[in-house]
Amino acid sequence: MTIYEWIFLFITLYAIICSFIPDDKISRLLFTIFSSLHLFIVQGLRGTHVGGDLPGYQTFYNLTSNFDKIIDGQFEIGYNFISYIFNVLHINFQVFIGIVSLFVFLILSIYIYKYSKNIYMSYGLYLYFGLYDFGFSGLRQIIAMSILLISFKFLIEKNLVKFLIVTTLATLVHTTAISFFIVYPLVNSKFIQKIYNKLFVLVLPVVFYFGGLIVYEVLKWFQPLLLTNFNFSYMDGFGMDEIFIIVIYIAGILLPLFEKTVKQDKLYRSLQVLSSITLGVQLLSPYSYYFTRFNLYYYQFMIIFVPYLFESYMGYFLRKNKTLHLFTRYSTLVLFFIAIVLFYHGYIQTNPHKIVPYSFF
């Protein structure tokens, strides 16, 4: 077993230990701290060779001691500026990636602690969706993703000015984060949301059947180099990722039938919109990895939505039958544990982000 496969086992151990703490608030807090600290130690203290894109980032970092690189550098101006500041402070690249990881897991901890109804599931899904592994390689995007977690707070609070400022900062680090601007009207305008929900049902079959053509046109405009090996048929096939997000979306749509009060919950409405975007983009992902990476911006919100749905449905079962509730809850958690362990073992073997072999600095 690799160091990565031990992570979820330790997270499960932390969950069991913290479950014996009678104060739920302290239990959640300690579990969040232990889990995020473990994730940070493995990612933040890794060697500079662990992560496929890291050598390129290191080369660029070592060349950003000149102010001109902020404007003329090969990456976005925001990331260039960050690299320049740390370089001027004579902070080496090894320490830099540690600071980036610290920022990522600090934001993630606050996000999960504040919004997750089942923290254990959230951390498991963070591994399952490949978000953790991606952070070893995609420095710019993982920073932008973390900044968008901050903007989510302002999205929920309907604070347009702060939402625009924070989302703009994310876009300056990685331009693909610009897509998150559309989320605000979809979530906060009932009129636009109503139209969107109806159009989404109509557009979804179009995305499914004409996905290849849609991806081709998008890549032609934004990433023409990726068209070299483009195939109009599914490259990776219609797999578990697509099935899983379809299940999430449908479960979210059906939830108001069992829990009528969720319609008034801003968190639910926001996550449901984000799940629809995740589904739409995911159906395009098998045609090009470009869409898989793009969809990570939205997948990170599913680590909150899935536990939200799970606990909401469990609440319904509890009111109906306590025995059924206990059986469903613990059998689901056992299956969840087995699924994450088996999936992660297979996922690590494919090593998509070049994080194996691992070594500390």
From TrEMBL:
<feature type="transmembrane region" description="Helical">
    <location>
        <begin position="125"/>
        <end position="151"/>
    </location>
</feature>
<dbReference type="Pfam" id="PF14897">
    <property type="entry name" value="EpsG"/>
</dbReference>
<feature type="transmembrane region" description="Helical">
    <location>
        <begin position="239"/>
        <end position="258"/>
    </location>
</feature>
<feature type="transmembrane region" description="Helical">
    <location>
        <begin position="199"/>
        <end position="219"/>
    </location>
</feature>
<feature type="transmembrane region" description="Helical">
    <location>
        <begin position="163"/>
        <end position="187"/>
    </location>
</feature>
<protein>
    <submittedName>
        <fullName>EpsG family protein</fullName>
    </submittedName>
</protein>
<feature type="transmembrane region" description="Helical">
    <location>
        <begin position="91"/>
        <end position="113"/>
    </location>
</feature>
<feature type="transmembrane region" description="Helical">
    <location>
        <begin position="330"/>
        <end position="348"/>
    </location>
</feature>
<feature type="transmembrane region" description="Helical">
    <location>
        <begin position="270"/>
        <end position="290"/>
    </location>
</feature>
<keyword id="KW-0812">Transmembrane</keyword>
<keyword id="KW-0472">Membrane</keyword>
<feature type="transmembrane region" description="Helical">
    <location>
        <begin position="6"/>
        <end position="22"/>
    </location>
</feature>
<feature type="transmembrane region" description="Helical">
    <location>
        <begin position="296"/>
        <end position="318"/>
    </location>
</feature>
<keyword id="KW-1133">Transmembrane helix</keyword>
<feature type="transmembrane region" description="Helical">
    <location>
        <begin position="29"/>
        <end position="45"/>
    </location>
</feature>
<dbReference type="InterPro" id="IPR049458">
    <property type="entry name" value="EpsG-like"/>
</dbReference>
